[in-house]
From TrEMBL, chains A, B, C, D, E, F:
It comes from Salipiger mangrovisoli. The keyword NAD applies. InterPro entries: Epimerase_deHydtase (IPR001509), NAD(P)-bd_dom_sf (IPR036291). This is NAD(P)-dependent oxidoreductase. Keywords: NAD, Oxidoreductase. The lineage of its organism: Bacteria, Pseudomonadati, Pseudomonadota, Alphaproteobacteria, Rhodobacterales. Belongs to the NAD(P)-dependent epimerase/dehydratase family.
């Protein structure tokens, strides 16, 4: 049982899900976002915060014994937007944590750090990056900051390269990339619970039979995902048109992000 | 649902099994063999064809949207026989496919491409070949042709290195090599269904606890074998004499093929 | 069914367990220890033996068709004690086996051969040693003797790097290292049963979700562990205090052995 | 012979060296820096430019057929400074290149991307990053941008992880990390000359016998470094005090950067 | 000093070179080709032979204590031609050798077995094949036959994947692929001389600084190539137009073979 | 310049050589052996010592700032002899060093730790052991002790797996295994000189073109061997009969040690 878990980006889709699922695991959830969250539950508090504001982030982090960092941009955007939220924002977070007891950080990294690998390639967490977007580049930056703060100060992090976290897989590609909210929740709690977390990359995927990513190195966390996209495979193959073999969504692990242009601000 | 699947070598043991199991998955099964098949079912047609005859193979392939290539020699034979059926035959098939829309090809390759590895070695699909017979050499040739046609023309193939495809495992070695007909069928359909097949080697084995071969690279196909030789292990250990540790069948992955001489024509 | 299995170190904790579980698998269990075993069962015999005594070991081994070698020191001790029991003792055993028909040997090796690896490292059996104690060094010696006798004389061995063999996992670390007595027994019998054993390293762990060690290379043995420490995880997390992240027991695979000094005799 | 090579950061130490050595290889050197360069040679031109200014960088890049990007911060500094010059600056450069014909870019990356590896570890270019500073993190960012622009647009880059580029090695660590100006120059020209550069990581080191980094993957560039720190080893061992084995400069590949605190702006 | 070396394909370009360079190393050179060789030297004999004729090949091989197998097709041709000369021909040669004392065979394999790898990939001899032509496929077949005859009968071979064997490198690609006649000769003699040859793949390249292929595994042969394409690099860069980066000759290791269509007979 | 180097086993063949070559590098050479050394030079002292005697070894080590440990058995012998000198002896040495300031230890390990690898296999220092003799087993034990004392106490060692250290290579196998006295000496001094030695395995071979062992990981030591067996190759091939391909000396890296029986005491 944690005392106070901070969730950044708590007003977003993922944050909304995790407020529910993390509730039983902490005395208090401190929610933060740039957008107000109106409907606070009994063990929830809200702190408005722009993570590009370093002082504000320091205040935000103080007193927490665990951080789930969802804050920032989560799709392809212009460099200006990504710089503020995903570069400066991540730096601010790690600096704040360093100054306030180094609570463990669950960092929402992304499959878009490696999005240009082909779908018939099986990846290990040690394979070189191949980002498919400025967004993906910013997540590589975040992982690098986490690595630096671990080697230099001992800050512990789980770097969760999330595939697709939705209630259920929605298309052919998600049969490989799906991370169920239940499994994401148990991953977060495993990372908070294991005696020694270190700075560990974890592929954010459920126990999908069709997965592209090898999580065997992270078994020591004690995380055992329970869901499998296979349970949805027949339904999706029946109801969702099969993509052509040369479409980005069937070719690259990052899917349509590889088709995104550079966004101008 | 496929329109027309061509099965070459359809009169053989494997072909006879697959006619049954593939029936629900195609509007028509086009069966081909050098031997006549008398008992055609309602959605089956038969085309007599010697696969060493290039023109005949072109006619055979036209109009199919998927090919299961079982045709050719499947045990050790003289070079003359293997040359016609397994060298020239495979070339003919890929040329025919190239000319007729490049339907996906499921190529029945074999564990005899790597038969001289010891049974205590675990293999990845990228390990170098170690053929145990001219037959095994011919399957390496076939895989090489498939690779060429993929890189040069985009032809997609599944190169299934079949262990032992029989209704049930029959001896100690098959506890490692068994591929149930049910699993072979689901593998074929997975290869026909996946949006992008590429040119993918798959070890043709069920989910055997004792398996020697690592199929993790092929998870993206969405193939989940259901059978496990372990269910037959006790029975086989009781009823089949244990081979001596220095017999070929207990030493090499290719088993008794390593004991075969060169057959003279 | 074996004729006569020799268990050395049979009076110890592991030996006492295996007397029970191996009973159904052999016509006779020949038990040996430096300490007398009083309560022999109907198919048990006892031979008092100091394994540092080469002639006595030769007499002990004669007539056995399988050996489970638990004898020797199993914790950190002074060099003098380890030398006699774990260096000279292992040499004596392999010499005795060589002279008496080379019955297969199940050698109780240990995770302390690699105890200085961190707990967030996943190991393959081919990774270099990193012993955490003179005890661990002595087990490396034993594995080296087994390798020599295999390559030179054909002696077959299973080198079982035991994690923690207790009725149930007892602390946080054992969630990774636990080997249930049931699984150890089935491993022993698999090694006696497989047509060709060779000289095979096996990580002595149950099917623990949190395991650190990759046993995929040993699938050919047909050993399928049935137990999983995960079934005990909730209970342990509730009832056993979580170790600090910098304690040896949470840092190194060998746990507290890394904290042991050199024992003086 | 190149038409116009752009050197960013041309007023710095490295830039000053390369102005000399690159002179014979281009009709014109376009020099750029935030600091004025007074003493222009006959085939040199100067453009004052803050690389954090996107529009200015576009103008700067236009008309060049090769870029040597030395601009930005080259030691540990506060995040504010690094963000402007090394994050935004690199983005600006690649955007400008994309809009102006994609001239090849020689990107001055750094050993500080991997500075936390120990000096007794030999690295391949595919090993995961281990940055030792915010500066090192910013170079990882730059490599990620280069990778993105290559996979998405075909932009070619050489990512040169420079060790220590000085006229001669100056201390014990530089016996491993030294890159002579002559070798850096020939590397730049090899990258401009090879028919296909792709996006290639190169360790920026001379042919030092004591090197930590494996450049064998980059042999295709045709770069053959001529200098070897070994020629200076005796002199350095005699004249420079040997560092203690636990000092950062003797422990980590990044040397004293690992001792740097986070700089506050 | 060998007694009698057989050179097949002796009338070809390579054969003509090797007649000169091998002359000092054998009492007799037995030359064979489908084309007559008129100008025999004093220690040369000629045997006309179509290697597709099994009986003729047996007669040819008898009495030789070493074979340099250059015979067959050496560029892309129709399947019919390749089948006769490079499939059946190789089989005939190994059968003949098996029946006549198993003299060592130097088999002229080719870089076209791996021609579809990109030029920025460094290969080991164990990397999977990627043929670029039917010719390349036929060389894979040849290597597979050699492997079979080694594992089954003990026949020793050097499988020399020749790059480009010409008096001097002639274009940009050959800076990587060149094998000087002098180095090819010393390789042949090293393979005949080493006490144990086994069945060893060797990349047929001189000591080119720009080489793509790692020959370190074959150091045991004692072959030390003396030539380096680097000596010709400046001249070629000056006199031969640089290929465009997207031309096959600059993209793939197999160069223009990847552009070849399937030849019809 | 070292103050006092201890050479154990100084009366042996290797010790006699190193007394000469190490003389210029230390103010004093402390020589030790079980056999008296009569002809002491001006900067040499002699201490008679049986390394199986722990107290004597402690006295021996005191006051030394570097140890070259050649003492013990260096060929195959009975277990009794090896146990005293190579098991207990090594333990005594490391205990003594631990108590006396942990001077660096150059441990004469051996190729016989991996003697059962074939000669056509290229080894990395991380490959699993394959000892060919009890002697080889004892050297594995020594390396394990060194590893333990490094991880537990920080003791630094160079583990030199010596091939064949003789003035010149004497037979075909030594073309691969030769270590010239000059190169051994420079290796010892490099290990004493490098700021951080750690616990590093080094293959004890000169810069032999025919070497089997990859020393690239140890480049950081700054050791650059100067000799190459190639200079002796022609002479040896002319004057020493070529071994048959199935003789141990041509098959296994450990050569004739694989033919040694177990010696009885």
């Amino acid at each position: 049982m944690m005392k106070r878990i901070l969730i950044t980006g708590a007003a977003g889709q993922l944050g909304t899900i995790l407020r529910e699922t993390l509730k039983p695991h902490a005395e208090e959830l401190r929610l933060s976002d740039i957008t107000e969250i109106p409907d606070l539950g009994p063990n929830e508090s809200f702190v408005a915060c722009d993570i590009a504001d370093g002082e504000a982030v320091k205040a935000l982090v103080e007193g927490c014994d665990g951080i789930v960092h969802l804050g920032g941009i989560s799709v392809e955007k212009s460099f200006d937007l990504i710089e503020a939220a995903n570069l400066r924002g991540v730096y601010n977070l790690y600096e704040a944590a360093r100054l306030h007891g180094m609570p463990r950080i669950i960092f929402a990294s992304s499959n878009h750090t490696i999005g240009y690998y082909k779908q018939d390639e099986r990846l290990r967490h040690t394979d070189p990056f191949k980002p498919d977007s400025l967004y993906g580049v910013s997540k590589i930056f975040g992982e690098a900051v986490a690595s630096l703060y671990h080697d230099k100060f001992g800050q512990e992090s789980a770097l969760v390269r999330i595939g697709s976290c939705t209630p259920a897989p929605e298309n052919w590609r998600m049969l490989s990339t799906w991370l169920s909210p239940r499994d994401f929740t148990s991953l977060i709690m495993a990372a908070f619970t294991v005696p020694r977390l270190g700075c560990t990359v974890v592929w954010g995927q459920s126990a999908n039979a069709m997965g592209w990513w090898d999580n065997s190195h992270a078994a020591f966390l004690g995380w055992v995902p329970q869901d499998n996209s296979q349970d949805y495979a027949e339904e999706i193959r029946r109801s969702v048109p099969r993509p052509g073999r040369d479409e980005a969504v069937a070719t690259y692990q990052g899917g349509v992000f590889t088709d995104e242009p550079i966004h101008q601000s």
